[in-house]
Amino acid sequence: MSLLFRNLRIHQIFGANTDVGKTVLTSALVRASAANGHIVHYLKPVSTGPLSDADDERILVLAGKHRDRVHSKCLFRFDDPVSPHLAARRANEGEVVQRVVPTDDAFVNAVASYVRSCAQKVTAPSHMYVETAGGVHSPTLSGTTQLDSYRPLFFPTVLIGDSRLGGISSTIASYEAMLLRGYIVDAILLFRDEYYRNWEYLSPYFAERGVPVMSVQPPPERHSDPTKDGALTESYYQDIVPPTGDSPIFEVAKHLNECHTRRIAELDSMPRRTLDSIWWPFVQHGHVNGEADVNIIDSAWGDFFSIYNGNRTLPAPTLSPAASPATSRPSSLLEPQLDGSASWWTQALGHAHPSLAQAAARAAGRYGHVMFPEASHLPALQLAERLIQNGPGKGWASRAFFSDDGSTGMEVAIKMALRAFSVREAGGKLGGSRRKDLGILGLKGSYHGDTIGAMDACEDAGVYTCEWHDAKGYWFDPPTVSIRKGKTVVSLPPAIAAETEDGKVDVETVSLSWTYNVEERLESSLADTYRTYIERTLQKLKDNRGLKIAALILEPIVMGAGGMIFVDPLFQRVLIDVVRGTPSSSATSEWSGLPIIFDEVFVGFYRLGFPTTHPLLGTTPDISVHAKILTGGLVPLAVTLASDSIYRTFLSDDKADALLHGHSYTAYPVGCEVARETLEIVDKLAVSGAWSEAREKWKVPQTQAEPTATSEAAVWSFWDPEFVNVVSHMDHIAEVMALGTLLSIKIKDDAAGYQSHSARALLESIRTAVPTGSDSLSPAPVGSPFGINYRTLGNVAYFMLSLNTPPSVVRAVEERVWRVLQDNKR
């Protein structure tokens, strides 16, 4: 991620357009820094055109008498004076042996590697300027726009404004494009054109936004006589960078120094300020040991945070006898850290995805937020249609109700289900205390959010409760699926195991894929056992008149917060069939038995490798709830989908019969537009080569370019099956499971459960970035060693990827996890 050094102040120079004087003004900054006694490093990552016009050579000339303090470098040079992506392509066309055009990662790593080499050399405060080519959106070698290509570096920037006709517009547009990608713009510098006088307009405009604008006189026209041209140029630089140190250029240099100092000081102060003011969720503050426990995130990009390590230095790599100290990497104040929990399961496409940021800006600029009752807007309407017609509601849902997050979405679902049940149960007249007696049916270990109603739909024994928690219902202890010693095992609760022929608690199955082939298993003896057990339990509940079960709520396939519990899908399917009183294959459009709610907040939209859990279970719900991946992790939004029979329950002439539930930000246009963009991108990923390769490793049949209904229901993971197998054989590992983006590792621990600290203690060292000790770069942004931010649920450690995490990152994480587990055998 971003590189930040105490003794090397780095600024990247972008131009609002081509020919705006970027090199002239960068040269002035280089000269001012050198005149103030600093060593200056100038980097031109890409240069196009003849060597005689190369900026990296010209910088040295323009440094004048301070040249001995200036070091200049160009990384990729092309003779053709055109856009870098075109110059690279044309260079290949003329070569017998084709040169490989660097990928964005390789390009950024090359820049980062040079920056690190410069940082290693400085001992006193020094400066560095990284000058881009053309305007902010000029392509780099791969064709990616510069703003996106350079974004992993996240250097603070100076924008060279356009002083010409139309320059006000291009300067503001460039600034806004930079903000949209999270760049820090420390200053704007431009020529002082006396005719167009753009600086007069731009100075107060950017002052309101906290960005200073400095202007200087433009350079003289180039003279045909090289000697006279050199004299005129030197005279010009003497004027704008005078020996007295009194000019706008020196003011800019001073301001950039202050920005650098202020940024580090703020990062230094953030741990203490956080401990003094923040109350964290799901954290026992009594266990926080001080500032060292505060993870300061300076920025995020892709799958990685860029975290501040303060005065902590990275451990030095182990060098071979032939290696020199120069091969070790200097310690940046920032280091990459993998977002190992996908930021609480929300990330789908990595952090700061430019397309999602643009979608948010699109809706924010057009709508902001607008009232939704008896109204509509395109983002909400198009998203609702997408979810109903070609999403998780396809074939069964008729309505979409928008809310804020998964917990509130579940509150809506519970209200829908209980009303539907009460209307059918008593013709709409189930009132008074009887309505207070309604409860839900669910599974032990379930979690549906932290609002009161969602908590009441979970068992008393759960940890996510409060003093008002009043568990209302009954929760089955479910059978679970895991991989142990390379074998797929279904673990039965004692009550169910006692009803099988052999009484075994652990039942080894044919394979993982067979275990999730619910349709094939429906005729098995285990299915009969499940059915008998469920029917008898429900009959006992029915005989108990104290509580009336009014709805079934399931987290399909995996119960996340309860401990990454992989429920036997056969049990969930049989439970649904029994509750409905009819096989799912013959279900009508009307709900039967009990309304069934699927809480797919965690598992939906390919989190587990399939778009929805319905094909795998072979059935659909009456109500389902979706959030998290829905918006790619950028903004909060939830949607509750309902069948027409549920919707009709609320229709009458009485206003009191309406679904009187809502949120100030219902159908938030920004969230809806981001969700639409997210789903478009995810649809493309689902048919990508990377997904096909991952499926092939898990032996999922791929007979078509797009996933078939069969392959959508087949289980697979981005985690390598051999890695899962190896970990499952470790003596101190109880079990492992992997589906889609999720990897779950359960540690053997007598004190198992949420109160256990075994998983956290075992993997603690994984948070620290560890150099490889070789010349190979890590797959993290800018090639730096990276740590892993992970979450645990008692004795369960889990890791979660985005849907577009590069395979190289996945393999590196697997290697790191394996090594830590191997080094901590007990």
From TrEMBL:
Please tell me where this protein is predominantly located.
mitochondrion
* Locations listed in the record: Mitochondrion
Q: Which InterPro entries match?
A: Aminotrans_3, Aminotrans_3_PPA_site, P-loop_NTPase, PyrdxlP-dep_Trfase, PyrdxlP-dep_Trfase_major
Q: Which GO terms describe its molecular function?
A: adenosylmethionine-8-amino-7-oxononanoate transaminase activity; dethiobiotin synthase activity; pyridoxal phosphate binding
**Which key words tag this protein in UniProt?**
Aminotransferase, Transferase
One Gene Ontology cellular component: mitochondrion
Q: Which Pfam families match?
A: AAA_26, Aminotran_3
Return one Gene Ontology term, BP aspect. biotin biosynthetic process
Protein known as:
Onanonoxo-7-onima-8-eninoihtemlysoneda
